[in-house]
Amino acid sequence: MFYYFVKSERSPREDPLIVWLTGGPGCSSFMGFAFENGPVIFNVEEYNGSLPNLVNNPNSWTKVANIIYIDAPIGTGYSYSKRLKSYATNDLRSSKEVYQFLIKWFADHPEFLSNSLYIGGDSYSGITVPVLTQEISNGIQGYLLGNPVTDRDFDDQAKIPYCHGMGLIPDEFYELTKRSCNGKYVNPSNEQCAKCIDLVNECVSGINDAQILEPVCFYIAPKPRGDLSGDHDMIVPHISTQSWIKSLGFSIVDDWRPWSVDGQVAGFTRMYSNNLTFATIKGGGHTAPEYRPKECSAMFRRWISENPL
């Protein structure tokens, strides 16, 4: 299994250790390393025929934490096997492979055994990170998920209400679709419902579903899809995550309120029992640190310090 390990720029022996799993499944950890919370980012400039340049990321999470970025499952990025059957994987098997990787990694790096351990990831990692956390169980300080896939019924069900709430479809489209589908948008139960869902999908087909305010790059993907924590993500809308959390039945201990960075509202948050915090990143996309790096860095620093947002 291929990985990047970046020591904390502050105090490697004392700062927490984060295991970061990129989503997909099958997206390279280089995405997190160079586009989200890693130590370097691409210097965005007009193409002049040369190779792109990397620059230091001022909002890197490695300024306050050690991070292992892992290419998982096998076949992702530079992770490979000499046995063909190793590529036939699933969520449980992938999580167990990462668990075995960590056992061997700590054997080679025992100086980090006393560091606080966190598991993090985004998108499809909403499935694998909790499984890995459960596999390790003892010694885990906590886990963090950004725009996570949780349950397809919640995630897919949320798209149409989200489109309406964000002003992407009019009241008439929404009311007709809700009425025709009886409020259930997964697996249409009748022809009229299917037609309405097709109408909505056609209406938003030109929208970048990973960040609805950003342009679509037609040269790369004529029909972009989201195999990549923000409130402008249409792939896994924040309202689906809220619905999933609500289904857990946890009581609210600190109700909905804004949280700020540099005196400006950065999003909204709510804290539940069992030490669960939900937070939105205002203006963030599917990979929130890519679109709102400063706000996500501030959120992360407060979270690992066990301070309220």
TrEMBL record:
Highest taxon in the source lineage: Eukaryota
Keywords, in A-Z order: Carboxypeptidase, Glycoprotein, Hydrolase, Protease
Pfam families, per the entry: Peptidase_S10 (PF00450)
Molecular function via GO: acyltransferase activity, transferring groups other than amino-acyl groups; serine-type carboxypeptidase activity
PROSITE patterns reported for this sequence: CARBOXYPEPT_SER_HIS (PS00560)
Zinc found in the keyword field: no
Keyword Repressor in record: no
GO biological process: proteolysis; secondary metabolic process
PANTHER family: SERINE CARBOXYPEPTIDASE-LIKE 19 (PTHR11802:SF29), SERINE PROTEASE FAMILY S10 SERINE CARBOXYPEPTIDASE (PTHR11802)
Family: Belongs to the peptidase S10 family.
Record-given protein name: Serine carboxypeptidase-like 17
